[in-house]
Amino acid sequence: MSKISTDQEKIQELLSRGVENIYPSKGFLEKKLKNGEQLTLYLGIDPTGPTLHIGHIIPMEKLRQFQELGHKIVLLIGDFTGTVGDPTDKAATRKPLTHKQVLQNAKDYKKQATTILNFSGENKVELQYNSTWHNKMNFSDVLNLSTNFTVQQLLERDMFQERIKAGKPIHLHEFMYPVLQAYDSVAMDVDGEVGGNDQTFNMLSGRTLMKSLSKKEKFVVTMKLLVDPSGKKMGKTEGNMLALTDSAKDMFGKVMSWTDGMITDAYELCTRLPMSEIKKIGKELKAGKNPRDYKFRLAQEITSIYHGEAKAKKAADEFVKIFAKGGKPDEIKKHKIKTGSMSPVELLFVLDLVSSKGEARRLIEGGGMRINDEKLSSWKENVKIKSGDIVQAGKRKFAQIK
Prior knowledge:
Blueprint: H1 8-16, E1 19-23, H2 26-35, E2 40-45, H3 54-68, E3 72-77, H4 81-84, H5 99-106, H6 109-113, E4 126-129, H7 131-134, H8 139-146, H9 151-155, H10 158-166, H11 172-188, E5 192-196, H12 200-214, E6 219-223, H13 248-257, H14 263-270, H15 275-286, H16 291-307, H17 309-324, E7 334-335, E8 340-342, H18 344-350, H19 357-365, E9 369-371, E10 374-375, E11 383-385, E12 390-393, E13 397-401
Parallel strand pairs: 2-3, 2-5, 3-4, 5-6, 7-13
Antiparallel strand pairs: 1-6, 8-11, 9-10, 9-12, 12-13
Helix pairs in contact: 1-2, 11-12, 13-16, 13-17, 14-15, 14-16, 16-17, 18-19
């Protein structure tokens, strides 16, 4: 067993930084931490895509704090629940994934997570898969689990209420999702769970089941989400969702695209600067200081965590070259495609400058596509392309035709 730290300053940082709520109470968890007992806690991730992103990074940073105090961490891959589909925040039923697809999505998760968590040494993070226990359950087991919940409890979920009002279906397996996730806590016999505040219902379902089946008080730490001033989360469509697979250049550029209103929260949730310094930054921003300077430092701080200071500096220098001086990157990726006449929408898509053709149309309509520095005015007319042409999407994405 690793040595447990009861450092008061670190405990207070753990209990407050980026935290929205602690169940059953802050005092309950604080007492356990100060007593020096080793706690076991986990973060569950359903592999709906191949990359870990900002929604995973924030709770993993909290896990890192627990691990540094000597507590046991489990990173749980929801390879079973991922095939069911979490209905959280979904206005429609998720498209089902096969177990093969889910495992393929998760194959690099450990490698990505090592930039935050320690998977080696005396107190290494344990990687588990919830199919280990869910695949052993029969229908009778699932029915017995469901007796610990009521339909009224499950219908309380906001997204279900919205679907009912909109006349959209709620499928029975979606009702069962929080029951299955709740059983993860029982199967691993954990002391607690960490997750985004959008996962509160699911995590508290685990508290309910732990009380009922294990006679144990499980703590739940819900983390704030990084959202823009309108409350909108980072997304693939907006192109500003930070992923652990992002290059230093892309990571830096994405942070610089975040709104000014996100700066202070991003320092708290995504960097490791002392909170005293972050509060000072917040006061200076409110006093009217230029937010661009603070955002530039924010981008450097975040990029340094995942890519190191040297690559972060290089990304910063290139950003200045492109945006402040109107230049182009030193290295532009070359793509071998057939030259001639092509739809600009198709061109952006095959050059991997957009994630969808809908995004391509919106980009062109907004004047965000250029070929050799000439802005396109319409996505409906084909363009002529030749070898050597440089295609630009937005302010920071470039590709060269080979």
